Amino acid sequence: MSPIAALGTGLSVAVFGANGGIGRALIGILQAEDSVERVYALSRVRPDNLSGKTTSIAFDLLDEKSISDAAAVIAAQGPLHLAIIATGLLHDDSGGPEKRGQDLSEANMQRLFAINTIGPTLIAKHVLPILDRDRQSVFAALSARVGSISDNRLGGWHSYRASKAALNMMLRTLSVELAYRNPRAVCVALHPGTVDTPLSKPFQSSLSSTGIFSPHQAATNLLGIIAGLSAEDTGSFIAWDGQPISY
Q1: What is the value of pTM for the model shown?
Q2: What is the mean pLDDT of the segment spanning 41-53?
Q3: Which of 65, 89, 123, 169 is buried deepest, with most CB atoms within 10 A?
Q4: What distance in Å separates the CA atoms of residue 75 and residue 229, rounded to the nearest whole number?
């Protein structure tokens, strides 16, 4: 059965971060869906293996003009029914997540907040207004369970936790405004679980293989959750298995 059958037909969908592990998997699934009419793959580098129904749009998460320009390209073709932000940063060549407060640095905090909070929020600024108003539409951004304040019992990963918690707050706040402007639209934060991508690779040794999803399985899980959403779910923070996560 199609993972997004409940969303209807003639769908226009956009994936921001289309060249990442989960993003590429989402594009692959969506391209193969008969119910999807148009796919927009947004990334700095054009993904491989795009089908004829997919338009590649270059954008930079750290450049608001490129985000607004990308949204304008999409809007010119009609309203969106589904937008997924599959971007995020936990670590890079400059270092891994902090283990102690003494490891905090201004530069690392600024970079993680720019990528994990500010960029996705600016995407929402320009994309929420182009969601379809005549049928249910969904705006979903990938967050992380470690961004839950009430669930934080281990500490560490200070900047990543804080940037994802801030993203959750922004999505929740935007969902309240969206409910007035587009009552049929849904805005949610989704936790994909631990996925076999470069983001999680250094931390997989402490997990069993059964606790790690392939990008394809993670994408399928996420689309299944999205397909089951209703307007009452807007503002929620939901895990890969459909269970709510406390903020």
Answers
A1: 0.93
A2: 95
A3: 123
A4: 24
